[in-house]
Amino acid sequence: MDNKTLFNKLITFTSSVLRVTNDLTKDVRPDIITQVQYEILDFIAVAKQPITLSEISDCIRISMPNASREIRKLGELHLVEKKSDVEDRRKQFIYLTKDGETMMKKVYQQIEFNFKNRMENASAEDLKEIERAVDILQTKLYF
Amino acid sequence: MDNKTLFNKLITFTSSVLRVTNDLTKDVRPDIITQVQYEILDFIAVAKQPITLSEISDCIRISMPNASREIRKLGELHLVEKKSDVEDRRKQFIYLTKDGETMMKKVYQQIEFNFKNRMENASAEDLKEIERAVDILQTKLYF
DNA sequence: TATTTTAATTATCAAAAGACAACTAAATGA
DNA sequence: TCATTTAGTTGTCTTTTGATAATTAAAATA
Protein backbone atom coordinates (compact mmCIF):
# COMPACT_ATOMS: atom_id res chain seq x y z
CA MET A 1 0.00 0.00 0.00
CA ASP A 2 1.54 3.30 -1.03
CA ASN A 3 1.77 6.50 0.93
CA LYS A 4 -0.95 8.24 -1.05
CA THR A 5 -3.71 5.86 -0.09
CA LEU A 6 -2.60 5.91 3.52
CA PHE A 7 -2.84 9.69 3.46
CA ASN A 8 -6.37 9.56 2.10
CA LYS A 9 -7.34 7.12 4.81
CA LEU A 10 -5.89 9.49 7.35
CA ILE A 11 -7.98 12.40 6.13
CA THR A 12 -11.09 10.30 6.67
CA PHE A 13 -9.75 8.91 9.92
CA THR A 14 -9.01 12.33 11.38
CA SER A 15 -12.44 13.50 10.42
CA SER A 16 -13.98 10.46 12.13
CA VAL A 17 -11.96 11.00 15.28
CA LEU A 18 -13.19 14.58 15.40
CA ARG A 19 -16.79 13.58 14.82
CA VAL A 20 -16.81 10.86 17.47
CA THR A 21 -14.93 13.00 19.95
CA ASN A 22 -17.44 15.77 19.34
CA ASP A 23 -20.15 13.27 20.04
CA LEU A 24 -18.60 11.93 23.24
CA THR A 25 -17.92 15.39 24.60
CA LYS A 26 -21.29 16.83 23.71
CA ASP A 27 -22.63 18.82 26.65
CA VAL A 28 -19.76 17.97 28.99
CA ARG A 29 -18.25 21.45 29.04
CA PRO A 30 -19.30 23.33 32.18
CA ASP A 31 -21.21 26.51 31.44
CA ILE A 32 -18.85 28.72 33.40
CA ILE A 33 -16.00 28.22 30.92
CA THR A 34 -15.75 28.92 27.20
CA GLN A 35 -14.57 26.59 24.46
CA VAL A 36 -10.96 27.83 24.43
CA GLN A 37 -10.86 27.76 28.19
CA TYR A 38 -12.02 24.15 28.07
CA GLU A 39 -9.29 23.32 25.58
CA ILE A 40 -6.70 24.90 27.83
CA LEU A 41 -7.89 23.01 30.91
CA ASP A 42 -8.01 19.76 28.94
CA PHE A 43 -4.49 20.37 27.68
CA ILE A 44 -3.17 21.00 31.18
CA ALA A 45 -5.06 18.04 32.62
CA VAL A 46 -3.84 15.57 30.00
CA ALA A 47 -0.27 16.85 30.18
CA LYS A 48 -0.04 15.95 33.87
CA GLN A 49 3.07 18.05 34.29
CA PRO A 50 3.88 21.69 34.81
CA ILE A 51 3.12 23.58 31.62
CA THR A 52 4.24 27.08 30.85
CA LEU A 53 2.14 29.76 29.28
CA SER A 54 4.29 29.68 26.15
CA GLU A 55 3.69 25.96 25.75
CA ILE A 56 -0.04 26.44 26.04
CA SER A 57 0.12 29.26 23.54
CA ASP A 58 2.19 27.11 21.16
CA CYS A 59 0.21 23.90 21.35
CA ILE A 60 -3.31 25.30 21.36
CA ARG A 61 -2.27 27.95 18.86
CA ILE A 62 -3.50 31.07 20.56
CA SER A 63 -1.29 34.11 20.81
CA MET A 64 0.54 34.79 24.04
CA PRO A 65 -1.60 37.83 24.88
CA ASN A 66 -4.79 35.85 24.40
CA ALA A 67 -3.45 32.82 26.26
CA SER A 68 -2.46 35.10 29.11
CA ARG A 69 -5.92 36.65 29.19
CA GLU A 70 -7.70 33.30 29.25
CA ILE A 71 -5.41 31.96 31.96
CA ARG A 72 -6.13 35.06 34.01
CA LYS A 73 -9.86 34.43 33.63
CA LEU A 74 -9.41 30.78 34.62
CA GLY A 75 -7.45 32.03 37.62
CA GLU A 76 -10.31 34.33 38.56
CA LEU A 77 -12.56 31.27 38.48
CA HIS A 78 -10.09 29.51 40.80
CA LEU A 79 -9.54 26.73 38.28
CA VAL A 80 -5.84 27.28 37.65
CA GLU A 81 -2.87 28.72 39.50
CA LYS A 82 0.32 30.28 38.31
CA LYS A 83 3.73 29.72 39.86
CA SER A 84 6.88 31.17 38.45
CA ASP A 85 9.77 28.91 37.60
CA VAL A 86 12.53 29.19 40.19
CA GLU A 87 15.15 28.60 37.48
CA ASP A 88 13.83 31.25 35.16
CA ARG A 89 11.52 33.66 36.86
CA ARG A 90 10.09 34.94 33.58
CA LYS A 91 8.36 31.62 33.07
CA GLN A 92 4.95 30.92 34.54
CA PHE A 93 3.97 27.35 35.26
CA ILE A 94 0.26 26.76 35.13
CA TYR A 95 -1.44 24.19 37.35
CA LEU A 96 -4.97 23.04 37.88
CA THR A 97 -6.23 23.94 41.34
CA LYS A 98 -8.18 21.40 43.40
CA ASP A 99 -11.33 22.98 41.97
CA GLY A 100 -9.96 22.68 38.46
CA GLU A 101 -9.04 19.05 38.99
CA THR A 102 -12.44 18.25 40.42
CA MET A 103 -14.15 19.91 37.48
CA MET A 104 -12.08 18.08 34.90
CA LYS A 105 -12.48 14.78 36.73
CA LYS A 106 -16.24 15.17 36.44
CA VAL A 107 -15.88 16.04 32.77
CA TYR A 108 -13.86 12.91 32.07
CA GLN A 109 -16.29 10.76 34.02
CA GLN A 110 -19.09 12.04 31.85
CA ILE A 111 -17.09 11.35 28.70
CA GLU A 112 -16.28 7.87 30.00
CA PHE A 113 -19.96 7.24 30.58
CA ASN A 114 -20.72 8.25 27.00
CA PHE A 115 -17.82 6.13 25.79
CA LYS A 116 -19.03 3.02 27.61
CA ASN A 117 -22.48 3.54 26.21
CA ARG A 118 -21.03 3.76 22.76
CA MET A 119 -18.95 0.59 23.19
CA GLU A 120 -21.43 -1.57 25.04
CA ASN A 121 -21.68 -4.00 22.15
CA ALA A 122 -17.94 -4.41 21.71
CA SER A 123 -16.44 -7.74 22.72
CA ALA A 124 -13.40 -8.08 24.98
CA GLU A 125 -11.45 -9.11 21.90
CA ASP A 126 -12.56 -5.95 20.11
CA LEU A 127 -11.39 -3.81 23.00
CA LYS A 128 -8.04 -5.56 23.02
CA GLU A 129 -7.64 -4.95 19.31
CA ILE A 130 -8.58 -1.31 19.74
CA GLU A 131 -6.05 -0.92 22.49
CA ARG A 132 -3.29 -2.48 20.39
CA ALA A 133 -4.16 -0.22 17.48
CA VAL A 134 -4.18 2.86 19.70
CA ASP A 135 -0.76 1.91 21.05
CA ILE A 136 0.64 1.54 17.55
CA LEU A 137 -0.72 4.86 16.32
CA GLN A 138 0.33 6.62 19.48
CA THR A 139 3.90 5.41 19.01
CA LYS A 140 4.32 5.55 15.26
CA LEU A 141 2.11 8.40 14.14
CA TYR A 142 0.84 10.63 16.91
CA PHE A 143 4.04 10.99 18.91
CA MET B 1 -6.74 -4.95 30.05
CA ASP B 2 -9.86 -3.39 31.49
CA ASN B 3 -12.06 -0.70 30.03
CA LYS B 4 -10.83 2.00 32.38
CA THR B 5 -7.27 1.90 31.21
CA LEU B 6 -8.36 1.84 27.61
CA PHE B 7 -10.42 4.94 28.25
CA ASN B 8 -7.46 6.75 29.78
CA LYS B 9 -5.37 5.86 26.78
CA LEU B 10 -8.07 7.24 24.56
CA ILE B 11 -8.10 10.58 26.33
CA THR B 12 -4.38 10.87 25.65
CA PHE B 13 -4.78 9.51 22.14
CA THR B 14 -7.49 11.98 21.21
CA SER B 15 -5.40 14.81 22.53
CA SER B 16 -2.45 13.61 20.44
CA VAL B 17 -4.54 13.33 17.30
CA LEU B 18 -5.72 16.89 17.81
CA ARG B 19 -2.21 18.17 18.43
CA VAL B 20 -0.70 16.47 15.39
CA THR B 21 -3.63 17.42 13.17
CA ASN B 22 -3.25 21.00 14.34
CA ASP B 23 0.38 20.77 13.39
CA LEU B 24 -0.23 19.27 9.95
CA THR B 25 -2.92 21.80 9.10
CA LYS B 26 -1.02 24.81 10.38
CA ASP B 27 -1.31 27.64 7.85
CA VAL B 28 -3.23 25.62 5.25
CA ARG B 29 -6.53 27.46 5.66
CA PRO B 30 -6.99 30.03 2.88
CA ASP B 31 -7.32 33.56 4.19
CA ILE B 32 -10.64 34.19 2.51
CA ILE B 33 -12.48 31.72 4.75
CA THR B 34 -12.86 31.55 8.53
CA GLN B 35 -12.23 28.59 10.80
CA VAL B 36 -15.86 27.40 10.90
CA GLN B 37 -16.13 27.86 7.17
CA TYR B 38 -13.04 25.70 6.77
CA GLU B 39 -14.58 23.04 8.99
CA ILE B 40 -17.74 23.08 6.93
CA LEU B 41 -15.86 22.77 3.62
CA ASP B 42 -13.71 19.98 5.04
CA PHE B 43 -16.81 18.18 6.25
CA ILE B 44 -18.46 18.40 2.85
CA ALA B 45 -15.27 17.43 1.02
CA VAL B 46 -14.62 14.35 3.17
CA ALA B 47 -18.25 13.26 3.06
CA LYS B 48 -18.16 12.95 -0.74
CA GLN B 49 -21.93 12.81 -0.91
CA PRO B 50 -24.78 15.28 -0.86
CA ILE B 51 -25.07 16.74 2.61
CA THR B 52 -28.00 18.72 3.89
CA LEU B 53 -27.81 21.85 5.95
CA SER B 54 -29.27 20.02 8.95
CA GLU B 55 -26.55 17.41 8.77
CA ILE B 56 -23.86 20.06 8.70
CA SER B 57 -25.50 21.81 11.60
CA ASP B 58 -25.72 18.52 13.54
CA CYS B 59 -22.24 17.21 12.88
CA ILE B 60 -20.26 20.40 13.24
CA ARG B 61 -22.51 21.50 16.07
CA ILE B 62 -23.47 24.94 14.97
CA SER B 63 -27.07 26.10 15.13
CA MET B 64 -29.16 26.04 11.99
CA PRO B 65 -29.30 29.82 11.74
CA ASN B 66 -25.54 30.09 11.99
CA ALA B 67 -24.94 27.17 9.64
CA SER B 68 -27.29 28.79 7.16
CA ARG B 69 -25.45 32.09 7.42
CA GLU B 70 -22.03 30.51 6.90
CA ILE B 71 -23.25 28.49 3.93
CA ARG B 72 -24.66 31.67 2.43
CA LYS B 73 -21.27 33.33 2.84
CA LEU B 74 -19.53 30.35 1.27
CA GLY B 75 -22.03 30.60 -1.56
CA GLU B 76 -21.18 34.27 -2.02
CA LEU B 77 -17.54 33.19 -2.33
CA HIS B 78 -18.63 30.68 -5.01
CA LEU B 79 -17.24 27.78 -2.96
CA VAL B 80 -20.50 25.91 -2.40
CA GLU B 81 -23.84 25.54 -4.11
CA LYS B 82 -27.27 24.69 -2.80
CA LYS B 83 -29.74 22.44 -4.54
CA SER B 84 -33.06 21.51 -3.05
CA ASP B 85 -33.99 17.86 -2.68
CA VAL B 86 -36.56 16.79 -5.27
CA GLU B 87 -38.12 14.38 -2.78
CA ASP B 88 -38.48 16.93 -0.02
CA ARG B 89 -38.17 20.47 -1.24
CA ARG B 90 -37.55 21.83 2.25
CA LYS B 91 -34.17 20.16 2.27
CA GLN B 92 -31.11 21.86 0.84
CA PHE B 93 -28.24 19.75 -0.41
CA ILE B 94 -24.90 21.48 -0.22
CA TYR B 95 -22.16 20.80 -2.77
CA LEU B 96 -18.67 22.09 -3.34
CA THR B 97 -18.43 24.06 -6.57
CA LYS B 98 -15.48 23.55 -8.93
CA ASP B 99 -13.80 26.47 -7.16
CA GLY B 100 -14.50 24.89 -3.80
CA GLU B 101 -13.09 21.56 -4.92
CA THR B 102 -9.98 23.19 -6.33
CA MET B 103 -9.42 25.08 -3.10
CA MET B 104 -9.83 22.01 -0.93
CA LYS B 105 -7.63 19.93 -3.23
CA LYS B 106 -4.83 22.44 -2.72
CA VAL B 107 -5.42 22.37 1.02
CA TYR B 108 -5.13 18.58 1.13
CA GLN B 109 -2.00 18.66 -1.01
CA GLN B 110 -0.40 21.02 1.46
CA ILE B 111 -1.41 18.79 4.36
CA GLU B 112 -0.04 15.77 2.50
CA PHE B 113 3.24 17.57 2.00
CA ASN B 114 3.45 18.27 5.73
CA PHE B 115 2.48 14.68 6.45
CA LYS B 116 5.21 13.24 4.23
CA ASN B 117 7.74 15.51 5.87
CA ARG B 118 6.63 14.27 9.23
CA MET B 119 6.85 10.60 8.20
CA GLU B 120 10.02 10.69 6.16
CA ASN B 121 11.85 8.49 8.64
CA ALA B 122 9.13 5.85 8.82
CA SER B 123 9.87 2.49 7.25
CA ALA B 124 7.55 0.75 4.81
CA GLU B 125 6.77 -1.71 7.59
CA ASP B 126 5.85 1.16 9.91
CA LEU B 127 3.49 2.57 7.32
CA LYS B 128 1.86 -0.81 6.85
CA GLU B 129 1.37 -1.15 10.58
CA ILE B 130 -0.08 2.33 10.77
CA GLU B 131 -2.50 1.56 8.01
CA ARG B 132 -3.64 -1.65 9.68
CA ALA B 133 -4.14 0.19 12.96
CA VAL B 134 -6.10 2.96 11.24
CA ASP B 135 -8.33 0.37 9.60
CA ILE B 136 -9.04 -1.30 12.91
CA LEU B 137 -9.90 1.92 14.72
CA GLN B 138 -11.95 3.18 11.81
CA THR B 139 -14.06 -0.01 11.91
CA LYS B 140 -14.27 -0.74 15.60
CA LEU B 141 -14.16 2.66 17.28
CA TYR B 142 -14.62 5.60 14.95
CA PHE B 143 -17.49 4.29 12.87
C1' DT C 1 27.92 46.75 32.08
C1' DA C 2 24.95 47.79 28.27
C1' DT C 3 22.18 45.74 24.78
C1' DT C 4 19.26 42.32 23.12
C1' DT C 5 16.22 38.62 23.60
C1' DT C 6 12.61 36.08 25.87
C1' DA C 7 8.28 35.35 28.67
C1' DA C 8 4.50 37.29 30.00
C1' DT C 9 1.05 41.15 30.74
C1' DT C 10 -2.17 44.89 29.74
C1' DA C 11 -5.08 47.48 26.92
C1' DT C 12 -7.70 48.16 22.95
C1' DC C 13 -10.00 47.25 18.68
C1' DA C 14 -11.95 44.23 15.14
C1' DA C 15 -13.74 40.00 13.49
C1' DA C 16 -15.89 35.69 14.14
C1' DA C 17 -19.04 32.85 16.23
C1' DG C 18 -23.02 31.95 19.13
C1' DA C 19 -27.88 32.74 20.74
C1' DC C 20 -32.43 33.83 19.94
C1' DA C 21 -36.78 35.46 18.04
C1' DA C 22 -39.64 35.78 14.19
C1' DC C 23 -40.59 34.09 9.83
C1' DT C 24 -41.49 31.20 5.26
C1' DA C 25 -42.51 27.15 2.90
C1' DA C 26 -43.00 22.42 2.46
C1' DA C 27 -44.39 18.05 4.47
C1' DT C 28 -46.92 15.27 7.78
C1' DG C 29 -50.79 13.79 10.12
C1' DA C 30 -55.18 14.10 12.71
C1' DT D 1 -58.75 20.39 5.31
C1' DC D 2 -56.45 22.43 9.15
C1' DA D 3 -53.11 22.12 12.62
C1' DT D 4 -48.50 20.66 13.53
C1' DT D 5 -43.93 19.56 12.54
C1' DT D 6 -39.74 20.02 9.96
C1' DA D 7 -36.06 22.46 7.25
C1' DG D 8 -34.23 26.40 6.44
C1' DT D 9 -33.83 31.74 6.43
C1' DT D 10 -33.29 36.50 8.09
C1' DG D 11 -32.21 39.91 11.33
C1' DT D 12 -30.26 41.41 15.50
C1' DC D 13 -27.63 41.35 19.59
C1' DT D 14 -23.99 39.44 22.60
C1' DT D 15 -20.07 36.95 23.60
C1' DT D 16 -15.96 35.01 22.34
C1' DT D 17 -11.93 35.00 20.01
C1' DG D 18 -8.20 37.06 17.38
C1' DA D 19 -4.78 40.73 16.35
C1' DT D 20 -1.68 44.25 17.54
C1' DA D 21 0.97 47.70 20.04
C1' DA D 22 3.10 49.05 24.13
C1' DT D 23 5.08 47.68 28.43
C1' DT D 24 7.57 45.09 32.32
C1' DA D 25 10.89 42.15 34.15
C1' DA D 26 14.11 38.66 33.91
C1' DA D 27 17.73 36.29 31.37
C1' DA D 28 21.24 35.93 27.93
C1' DT D 29 24.92 37.87 25.55
C1' DA D 30 28.17 41.06 23.41
From TrEMBL, chains A, B:
User: A Pfam family name for this chain?
Assistant: MarR_2
List keywords of the entry alphabetically.
Answer: DNA-binding, Transcription, Transcription regulation
Q: Where are the transmembrane segments?
A: none
Q: Name one GO molecular function term.
A: DNA binding
Instruction: Enumerate the InterPro entries for this protein.
Output: HTH_MarR-typ, WH-like_DNA-bd_sf, WH_DNA-bd_sf
- The answer on whether this UniProt entry bears the keyword DNA-binding reads yes
Provide the protein name.
Answer: MarR family transcriptional regulator
**Gene source species:** Chengkuizengella marina
